[in-house]
Design goal:
The protein is an alpha+beta fold and about 230 residues long. The termini are far apart. The protein has a domain at about 65-225. The longest helix has about 55 residues, at about 15-65. The radius of gyration is 32 Å and the shape is elongated. It has helices at about 15-65, 70-75; strands spanning about 75, 80-95, 100-105, 105, 115-120, 125-140, 140-150, 160-170, 175-180, 185, 200, 205-210, 220-225.
Length: about 230
Amino acid sequence: MATRLRVHEGMTLVECLVALVLASLVSAAVISVLATQNRLLRGLTATSSDAEALRATAAVLGEDLRWSDPARDIQAIGGDSVVLRAFRGGGRVCAVMTDAITVEYQGARAPAPEKDSLLVLTGVGELAFAIRDVTGAACGPRPGIRLHVDGTASAGAYALVFESGSYFLRDRALRYRLGNEGRQPLTDERFAAGGHRLRVTHDSTAAAASLAWPGERAPMELRFPVGRTQ
């Protein structure tokens, strides 16, 4: 009896080449999709970081500039910096003693004698005093603070607590310097690396800060109402 041999058919060379080409096309498509998603993710992350830096800058500068009298409180403006009185709070003077005044105080934080000063608006001008100490007190039924200062003020005057500081755009981030201390970064490094990076202008009612972005993007201008009145 003759023995029949089984023939195991495999893929031809042409079929192998077609399979390789199809696998390569599928792999290229997957890689392209992943690369596109990666670029989109990086773009969204960069946009989010830019927006966060802009929000932080607007919040910080807006809080300080809106209490300012440009003629008296903005002390110097450079190509990338502004030196000003940064107000932290204030209130009406409700009691006066020999070496202290009691203020119905409200503000962003409590006064710090090691870095803050007191500005008293008298109606005909203003007086600045160093703060030596801060203790708790009351203005009748309302809470207040007692500021020990080297001077005096009239009851009913308005007192403002401030620190003298500088805002810079250096090394692509908004930075703050108090006195001779180092510059502390307030945002991530998102802004332009050269040229006039921070430009502050003002008139009697508003201040504007122009912030430059890297590349071809147009500068962003932030406007803040200002005008501290006595």
